């Protein structure tokens, strides 16, 4: 069996007396969509922050593509193929859609932002930016002001910005947050298409989306993974049902 693309071993993070992540271990092979679920306050966003490098663990180790990245800064993790989207969108609303993605390409390349002229005027930034927008279905919005987009389109734009760096692993933190039924269905379709080409760690509260998309699911409760397995395994796990899902949610998943 080939080595996993991402391997997390005994990761822990505390904030004073609060244990955010506690002895977390799991592995994600190349090509898998792995969902991380759990109640609010379980430590999911803290774990994503540790994986992306925006927060260092107190103990434990993170291996990516066979290399130890536990103490690697976030920018360097981005350069080797980790891309993160955030639970709350972080976009330049006064710039065009294309400029937002072009700046993401620029940042991934390690260059400083060039706000004094549109980033899209640089072909080296424009072409991969347009390709990323096409991938998420926003190519016809390229020249629009970002502020004019809907919330669902903002989510897709943020996804395009994550894709702009040609990542090996996508860390997606609640991409369905705040979406209506139609927008959620569009996002599920987008993620289903992306999972054919990208390894994905998906943090999500929408259980219908999780069970529709995930190859495997890990359940985080009070900073600890209490179960990890296929969607059917998780659905049938009594401990998971009691701690998080509930009989009704499992029945409708």
Could you characterize what this model shows?
With 253 residues, this protein is of the alpha/beta class. It folds into two domains: 1-81 and 167-253, 3-Layer(aba) Sandwich (Rossmann fold); 89-166, no CATH class. It has nine helices and ten strands. The protein has helices spanning 44-52, 74-79, 97-108, 123-135, 151-163, 181-194, 207-213, 231-236, 238-252, and strands at 6-15, 18-28, 33-37, 59-64, 67-68, 82-85, 169-173, 199-203, 216-221, 224-229. Helix 3 (97-108) crosses helix 4 and helix 3 (97-108) packs parallel to helix 5 (151-163).
Structural topology:
Blueprint: E1 6-15, E2 18-28, E3 33-37, H1 44-52, E4 59-64, E5 67-68, H2 74-79, E6 82-85, H3 97-108, H4 123-135, H5 151-163, E7 169-173, H6 181-194, E8 199-203, H7 207-213, E9 216-221, E10 224-229, H8 231-236, H9 238-252
Parallel strand pairs: 3-8, 3-9, 6-7, 7-8
Antiparallel strand pairs: 1-2, 1-4, 4-5, 9-10
Task: Please tag this protein with its features.
Rossmann fold, alpha/beta, 9 helices, 24% strand
């Amino acid at each position: 069996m080939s080595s996993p693309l991402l391997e997390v071993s005994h990761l822990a993070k505390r904030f004073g007396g609060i244990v955010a992540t506690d002895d977390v271990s799991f592995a994600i092979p190349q090509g898998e969509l792995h969902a991380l679920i759990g109640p609010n306050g379980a430590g999911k966003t803290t774990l994503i922050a540790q994986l992306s490098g925006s927060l260092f663990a107190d103990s434990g180790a993170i291996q990516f593509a066979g290399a130890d990245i536990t103490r690697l800064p976030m920018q360097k993790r981005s350069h080797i193929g980790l891309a993160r989207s955030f639970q709350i969108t972080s976009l330049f609303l006064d710039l065009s859609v294309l400029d937002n993605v072009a700046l993401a390409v620029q940042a991934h390349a390690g260059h400083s932002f060039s706000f004094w002229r549109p980033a899209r005027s640089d072909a080296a930034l424009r072409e991969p930016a347009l390709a990323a927008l096409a991938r998420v279905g926003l190519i016809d919005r390229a020249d629009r002001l970002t502020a004019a987009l809907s919330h669902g389109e903002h989510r897709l734009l943020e996804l395009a910005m994550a894709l702009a760096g040609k990542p090996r692993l996508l860390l997606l933190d609640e991409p369905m947050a705040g979406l209506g039924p139609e927008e959620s269905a569009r996002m599920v379709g987008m993620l289903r298409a992306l999972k054919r080409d990208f390894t994905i760690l998906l943090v999500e509260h929408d259980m219908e989306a999780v069970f529709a998309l995930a190859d495997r699911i890990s359940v985080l409760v009070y900073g600890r993974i209490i179960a990890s397995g296929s969607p059917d395994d998780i659905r049938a796990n009594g401990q998971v049902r009691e701690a998080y899902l509930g009989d009704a949610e499992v029945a409708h998943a």
